[in-house]
Write a structure and sequence with these properties.
Layout (H helix, E strand, L loop, with lengths): L5 E5 L10 H21 L1 H8 L5 H13 L4 H15 L5 H13 L2 E9 H10 L5 E4 L1 E3 L5 E5 L7 H10 L7 E6 L5 H5 L3 E4 L3
Parallel strand pairs: 1-2, 1-6, 2-3, 6-7
Antiparallel strand pairs: 4-5
């Protein structure tokens, strides 16, 4: 019997959704031709990343900068809302059910993801999840995207660091973690109960 408050933590890409949302967001925002051209330009870096010769956050930030640097934050946020409305089909039915079970039980829910906070928040809000910890983007004094991230990429050990920063008393809650990839391993390692996309 669980006697502590339950904190249910969900990864986003591949766990709540069926696909990587960065790729889908770029395709939605820029169209197929710009999407293909941009990724072709960065193919050598993508290959280096796959071979573990180049950090994933650097590849991700360079791709993000290529497509969105200079955009007004207000325009970017509107695009994120449009992306959610267009892409609701990406949400896994089994993830909806797991989230609803936790909501019905009165548990605290949280999304922790390497994806960009702005569009993750749109999806999470529609699933009645009010708290997200994600990779955050930097803006300049004029409210334009610089193309850089203002936080470390929320992946691997960074997920644990961000979780414990927001919920520091680890012994005071029962942690249920949902994930799908190696980027969730460190989070799963500290969980009381874990599910690798089989829920």
């Amino acid at each position: 019997m669980i006697t502590k408050p339950v904190l249910a933590v969900f990864d986003f890409d591949g766990t709540i959704t069926t696909k990587d949302t960065l790729l889908e967001f770029v395709r939605f925002s820029k169209g197929n031709l710009s999407f293909l051209w941009g990724f072709t330009m960065y193919l050598p870096l993508l290959i280096a990343y796959k071979l573990k010769l180049y950090p994933n956050w650097k590849v991700k930030q360079q791709l993000f900068s290529h497509f969105f640097k200079g955009m007004q934050l207000s325009d970017f946020d509107r695009l994120c809302e449009d992306f959610y409305r267009h892409s609701v089909y990406l949400i896994r039915p089994e993830a909806r059910k797991a989230i609803q079970r936790h909501l019905d039980a009165g548990d605290t829910l949280l999304v922790i993801s390497a994806s960009i906070e702005n569009w993750v928040r749109s999806f999470a809000g529609q699933l009645s999840i009010s708290s997200v910890l994600c990779t955050e983007i930097e803006t300049d004094s004029g409210g334009c995207l610089t193309g850089r991230f203002s936080t470390p990429n929320c992946y691997g050990q960074e997920k644990v660091r961000r979780l414990l920063q927001s919920y520091p008393r680890r012994d005071s809650y029962y942690l249920v973690a949902y994930g799908d990839s190696s980027g969730d391993k460190e989070l799963m390692d500290i969980a009381d109960e874990k599910f690798y996309r089989r829920f």
